[in-house]
Design brief:
Number of helices: 2
Number of domains: 1
Number of strands: 12
CATH topology: Pili subunits
Strand content: 25-35%
Largest sheet: 5 strands, antiparallel
Helix content: 25-40%
CATH superfamily: GSPII I/J protein-like
CATH architecture: Roll
Order of helices and strands: HEEEEEEEEEEHEE
Strand order of the largest sheet: 3-5-6-7-8
Structural class: alpha+beta
Oligomer: single chain
């Protein structure tokens, strides 16, 4: 009598097939993980770039729309110019930049720049001016924008605050006067000597903004003041 043998896989063949299948799954999982990580990095970089671009756009709008309207100080003792440059708050005394109106992440929350901005949008039709007082400062490595709801404020006025950008190392400003000369002070030393009624409404021709970020390095932008 002839004996029939069934066709099939041996144990060794099954083990080899399982090994190859596991190897293919491992390679596929590694490629998928790498693709997901790459996508996450691209999304994070895109979000970071968008935040930087939005910050620059806000700065441009505020500075371009600067108006020659002085603002009364909180104590009511006088008026501040349309642009007030903050005092140096950089704690790095080893750098020559200590004369700049700048701030690093360890500095106190003092305004580096205060200005009067016009064309403040009012879609709700509220009974208010189109002018606002805007301030920029650095706190805990973050660039902060503050604005006051009224121009002539008091000590009780509420400040509206908005965080624009993080990972900020320093922020500095320079100002160009009508003689096309750059200065880290405003009003410039020459303007302070010849101060008069017109100085109270004086604005720079342009403002240079320099932002140093931990991840992107130094960003510099020159913004022309309209009018």
């Amino acid at each position: 009598m002839r004996t029939r043998f069934r066709n099939g896989f041996t144990l060794i063949e099954l083990l080899v097939a399982l090994f190859i299948t596991a190897l293919l799954f491992a390679m596929g999982y590694g490629s998928l993980t790498q693709a997901l990580n790459s996508r996450k990095e691209v999304e994070e970089q895109g979000a970071r770039l968008s935040a930087v671009q939005q910050t620059v756009r806000v700065l441009e709008q505020d500075i371009e729309l600067m108006q020659p309207r002085p603002a009364r100080d909180a104590l009511g003792n006088g008026y501040q110019q349309p642009l007030v440059a903050g005092q140096n708050a950089n704690t790095d005394t080893s750098s020559d930049a200590s004369s700049d109106a700048s701030s690093d992440s360890s500095s106190t929350s003092l305004p580096l720049l205060t200005l009067t901005r016009g064309s403040w949008a009012n879609p709700a039709g509220l009974p208010r001016s189109e002018l606002e007082r805007v301030m920029y400062l650095v706190r805990d490595g973050k660039l902060i924008r503050q604005n006051l709801p009224v121009m002539d404020t008091t000590a009780a006025s509420t400040v509206v605050e908005r965080e624009l950008l993080d990972q900020v190392v320093s922020v500095s400003f320079r100002y160009m006067d009508e003689s096309m000369t750059w200065s880290t002070q405003w009003p410039t030393p020459s303007m302070q000597i010849t101060a008069g009624p017109a100085a109270l409404r004086a604005r720079p021709v342009a403002v240079e903004v320099t932002i140093t970020l931990k991840d992107l390095g130094v960003l510099t932008r020159i913004i022309e003041v309209a009018g």
